[in-house]
Amino acid sequence: MDKEIERQIEDKVKEILSKELDTRIAEALQKKGDYNRAAFIASKGSLDMAYPPLILASAAAAMDIESAIFFTFYGLDILHKKKNKNLKVPPVANPSMPVPMPNILGILPGMTAMATMMMNKWMRDQNVPSIQELLDACIESGVKLIACQMTMDVMGIKREDLIDEIEVGGAATFLEWASGCNITLFI
Question: Which residue of 34, 41, 68, 96 is surrounded by the most CB atoms within 10 Å?
Answer without folding.
Answer: 68
